[in-house]
Structures are given as structure tokens and as C-alpha cells.
Design a protein that fits this description.
Blueprint lengths: L2 E6 L7 H13 L9 E4 L2 H10 L4 H10 L1 H4 L29 H7 L1 H9 L6 H10 L12 E7 L9 E6 L11 H8 L9 E3 L3 E5 L1 H4 L3 H10 L7 E6 L19 H4 L12 H22 L3 E4 L15 H11 L2 H21 L4
Parallel strand pairs: 1-2, 1-7, 2-3, 7-8
Antiparallel strand pairs: 3-4, 3-6, 5-6
């Protein structure tokens, strides 16, 4: 019997991309979502997966990223009771002018840079309000569909050690007692962007992207652990956009210390917080390679090409993502994608008597 998995990467506001692709697929192929056995996600992909597993309309999930970005990314210090940074910035830092040395620029703006490094960038109050409205079931066990999200536990009470963990409603998983809201907040607590989320049972948790920004292999392992034959497992893995990023040669990376690897602004072709981007992009690519090698023709990876990098908190660049997604969903390549989905997620399920 076919066991169908939809896996969604993390990527902040770029979670709009898998949401748009899934909305289109479910519209073109009515039986698609009903034949998914497991929704798996990390961070923004975890929000998408929890929404789908809860039976939330795809349009409402799209709206979360399309219309609610300013509420998701509520600046730190704007909520009552939060300790605002003491340094006030007159404008966003963009790097030195062409006639200014990097060292002189860093010295001139050191207080502002330090404030961005010391303090979390956003409060999680806006996201929590949105999730509480969208995900209303008491626990994951009450959801109509199976779901798995990744998170990272900062301190295990029994071992005093941090550890990667999953939260799911799969059979015999004690974390099924987790509320969908706690699961959503735990999987999306991206370090430096949002504060850790205090899960009632797991304690402080951060974004699962630190170890599985692409949760495909984690979902595959969970399916195998549930006793499903490898030959029956089918996976649609959806990323949050591909674009060109690298470490800029000016200043040369040979000179990088901790500040440069964690510089909170983009410069040249390097993104803000380049070390975090490297780690998350790297694990996503490796996971896709591993799943493809294991599942072969039963695995399909979807990535929307982007014309330029979109930071995970750039909710003002929704238009570029919509344009890129629409371009991806046209032509023969998209026709082939939907043919694969019809064959693997609908026809195979019907042949085997349902997913």
C-alpha cells in the first residue's frame, strides 16, 4: 500500500512558495491532499504542514505568508514587557560605501551591529496570535491527519544535554499530546530571529532547521519506523526557493572571525548571518540527495527558482515570490510534475485500495 509523504522545508516568509505550490496541486488534482499519509515540515514548512494536517484551507495557509508578514515579524521591543535594545537605528545598515574600508565601517557602526547580534530580532507574540487562530485543535492527537515537525530541545531534563527531536501524532509518540500551537512555535523559533519557545514538556526549543531544514529523511525514517516498506514510500519534497548565494570575496573570507560569520546584514552576494544560511542550505541539499538515492523514482523535489535572494524575514517581497511561483507552475515541466503526483499519490493509492 502506498505511503505518501509531503515534506516542506523551512525558509521563513518563503514558506509562501510551498503553500502556493500545494494550493495549485490540490486545485488541479482533487484527490491529492486526501491521499497524503504524513505531512512533515520544518519551521515555515512546519506551519504549512500543521495547517494541512489540521484541515485548514490552502488559501488560509497562503494568506498567512502573503498577508500576515508584518504581524509574524513583529520587531523585538515593540511588545509590552520586552526589553528593547538601547541603540536606535536611523536606517537599515547596508555595508560600506565603495570608498570606505570594511574595518572603518565596522568601527563606525559597531554599536548598531552589536545590538543586532546581542538582541533577538523579533518577538514571537504576533506569530503566536496567528497560530492560535489558525490551529484550534487541543492536541496533535485530535488532528484528522498525521503530521511531524522538527525542533531542537535546548536542555533535556534527564541528560542535561541538548538534542534534536520531532513532534508528531504518529502512533505511540508521546509528543502527540502537544498542542498544534506549541508544535508550530517550537519548530519555527529560528535562532537570532525569534526567542526559543518554552514547550510544556520539552522545555525551551528552537527551529528544527538547525539540523533538518529539509525534514525529508526524518519523515522517511519515521515511516520506516512505523513499519512501512521502503518500496511503498512516496515523497514529494518542496523547498522554499533556490537562488545564488555565496561568501563575498570582499572582505576576504580568510579574514573572517565570529562577527563576520554572523554579521546581521547582507553584503555583496553574502546574506545576513551567512553561517546560518550556509548550515541551513547545506542540510537541505544533502537531505534531498539522500532521499533521492534511497527512494529513486518515488521521490520528487520541487524548488522554485528565484531571481534574487529573499531573506527569511523579507515579507515585503511577496510579489517576487508570487511571480516566481507562477512561472514555475507553467509549461511542460509543471505538467510532468502533476503527472508524477497523479501517478504516485492518486493512481497508486486507488490501485492499492486507498492511502
Amino acid at each position: 500500500m502506498a505511503y505518501c509523504i509531503v515534506s516542506c522545508d523551512g525558509g521563513g516568509i518563503r514558506g509562501l512558495l510551498p503553500a502556493l505550490l500545494i494550493q495549485r496541486i490540490s486545485s488541479d488534482i482533487p484527490g491529492f491532499l486526501g491521499n497524503v499519509n504524513l505531512f512533515a515540515g520544518t519551521s515555515a514548512g512546519g506551519l504549512v504542514s500543521l495547517g494541512l494536517a489540521s484541515g485548514v484551507a490552502t488559501g488560509d495557509i497562503v494568506n498567512l505568508f502573503e498577508q500576515q508578514g508584518s504581524q509574524i515579524f513583529t520587531p523585538y521591543g515593540s511588545s509590552p514587557g520586552s526589553a528593547a535594545p538601547k541603540v536606535k537605528r536611523s536606517s537599515a545598515l547596508t555595508g560600506p560605501a565603495s570608498d570606505e574600508s570594511w574595518w572603518d565601517w565596522i568601527k563606525a557602526h559597531f554599536e548598531e551591529i552589536l545590538a543586532d547580534i546581542v538582541f533577538v530580532k523579533y518577538t514571537n507574540s504576533g506569530l503566536h496570535t496567528l497560530m492560535s487562530s489558525l490551529l484550534t485543535a487541543p492536541t496533535l492527537a485530535d488532528l484528522p491527519n498525521s503530521v511531524l515537525v522538527t525542533t531542537f530541545q535546548l536542555d533535556q531534563p534527564n541528560s542535561n544535554n541538548w538534542a534534536p527531536v520531532t513532534i508528531s501524532n504518529l502512533p505511540n509518540d508521546p509528543s502527540s499530546a502537544t498542542s498544534p500551537v506549541d508544535a508550530a512555535m517550537s519548530t519555527s523559533a529560528a535562532p537570532t530571529y525569534f526567542p526559543p519557545w518554552q514547550h510544556p514538556a520539552l522545555g525551551y526549543c528552537i527551529d528544527g532547521g538547525v539540523f533538518a531544514n529539509n525534514p525529508g529523511s526524518v519523515a522517511l525514517a519515521a515511516a520506516l519506523n512505523q513499519g512501512h516498506a521502503l518500496s511503498d514510500i512516496v515523497m514529494l519534497s518542496i523547498g522554499t526557493g533556490s537562488f545564488t548565494e555565496n561568501v563575498a570575496v570582499v572582505p576576504p573570507p580568510a579574514n573572517y572571525g565570529p562577527l563576520m560569520w554572523m554579521l546581521p546584514i547582507p553584503f555583496n552576494s553574502s546574506p545576513a548571518l551567512p553561517l546560518i544560511s550556509i548550515l541551513m542550505d547545506g542540510v537541505s541539499s544533502v537531505d534531498a540527495l539522500v532521499c533521492k538515492q534511497i527512494l529513486g523514482a518515488n521521490y520528487l523535489r520541487l524548488q522554485v527558482p528565484l531571481s534574487s535572494a529573499i531573506p527569511l524575514d523579507d515579507y515585503q517581497d511577496v510579489a517576487q515570490m508570487e511571480t516566481a511561483a507562477n512561472a514555475c507552475m507553467t509549461g511542460s515541466t509543471w505538467t510532468n510534475v502533476e503527472s508524477w503526483i497523479k501517478q504516485k499519490f492518486v493512481s497508486a493509492a486507488a490501485t492499492t485500495g486507498g492511502a
